[in-house]
User: Fold these one by one.
Assistant:
Number 1:
Amino acid sequence: MRIGIGIDVHAFGPGDSVVIAGVRVPYARGVVAHSDGDVALHALCDALLGAAGLGDIGMHFPDSDPKWKGADSRELTRHVMALLRARHYRVANADLTILAEAPRIGRHREAMRRSIAQLLGIGDDQVNIKATTTEGLGFIGRNEGLAAQAVVLLHAAGSEASG
Ligand SMILES: [Zn+2]
């Protein structure tokens, strides 16, 4: 088994929605980003890459590469999963925390969970999404941006003891 952690932050900017975990959430602002600025999937990709010992998202999808400009982060995640599958890793589970004062993600949580489960090729029950504010403290508390943290556990295909 191998464990990985990832964290990502994006500032709010002009726009009318925020993409979180591949789900577009209507909001009075968007995010400033080279790609679609999906904090959840960026944190998740870093956790996956970290667990596999494959570096980080910036190495694989550099901001300087126009190929990833405005990219759908689901494509980045699929690319990362292909790297892991080539090394015979599978995801045991993923646990994410979204840190934001707004938008509230409560009613989008199940859609986000399903979205991530599909991207990782695992069951919904192997994905957990939590949301929290920072009690008005810091840049998140001032509603200047949002952040996400992800933890994943990988196992080598064929080495799993149960289910
Ligand atoms: Zn990001």
Note: The mean pLDDT is 94.
Number 2:
Amino acid sequence: MTDLATDICGIPLAGPVLNGSGTFDALAARRVFGDALVEEFPFDCYVSKTITMNPRPGNPPYRLWETPSGMINSIGLPGPGVDGFLERDLVGLSELGVPLIVSVMADSAEDFAILVEKVAAREEVSGIELNVSCPNVHSGLIVGEQPSETEALMKALRPLTSKPLIVKLTPNVANPHEVALAAEAGGADSVSMINTVKAAAIDPVSNRAWLGAGAGGLSGPAVRPIALAQVRAVSSVVEIPVIGMGGISDAESALEFILAGARVVAVGTENFRDPKAGKAVTDGLPAALERRGFGSLDEAQSATLA
Ligand SMILES: Cc1cc2nc3c(=O)[nH]c(=O)nc-3n(C[C@H](O)[C@H](O)[C@H](O)COP(=O)(O)O)c2cc1C
């Protein structure tokens, strides 16, 4: 059997398949599937939904709209806030048997710093993902859309922890590689990409915006070609590893991301159709590698450097 073991930012992984933040509620899945979930956990590393400073109710309904080959969501990051997460959720997540990355978001560098310090202090946490798709209250600019904001944030956060810091990039910019280079210059250990693509839908009855928040983010196979182009553009200029995602639905599409330059991949929207999608990707990878003439995952990962 092909050995799929790899690593991301020094975190050893049994295979290259993560989940996209916010697309797999492991605690709810464990309540439904019981210990069988832990025995055959579908991912090699678990990424939490994005955690914020204070509890949030999320956006008003409706929050989802299905599109051809994808969906638009405007969930709005509902959650218990960092203290509730650390007190109640973290223990359950640490029992999943895979490394844990916690995603955090704030609207100022000061709040981001508090989140990073609180989360990094917990030994259950292997790494932190920074969701930078939020405006900075001081500048009004969306951090992840501006190289200068991204670099400044990273410089503020980098000294706070030696744990890996991963910057989740938004695709909603003309030149994602500039933001990625800024993240790297500020000390990021990795970039993950892509987050959802800005999108809207019109209610066929009321003729108004369907989503309660007015607009949301498109994900699923519809965004895959965009994600592949951006992963390719970013991985060709940064030294740090790229976590690739955006419409991965099977082993073949996961391998496309590796060949575009991602070191590891994440499955997102597909988890809503099949909660075992991550495992299906892993199980299909040896045959997908063989079909494309690779003897190992490592060979495919380095093929992109040629
Ligand atoms: C319902 C839903 C919720 C999401 N929540 C988050 C989140 O909390 N934090 C985040 O960084 N990305 C979030 N994402 C974005 C995904 O992690 C991923 O970047 C994106 O959906 C592209 O991958 P996919 O096409 O495989 O879903 C969410 C996506 C969906 C569909």
Note: The first strand starts at residue 6 and ends at 8.
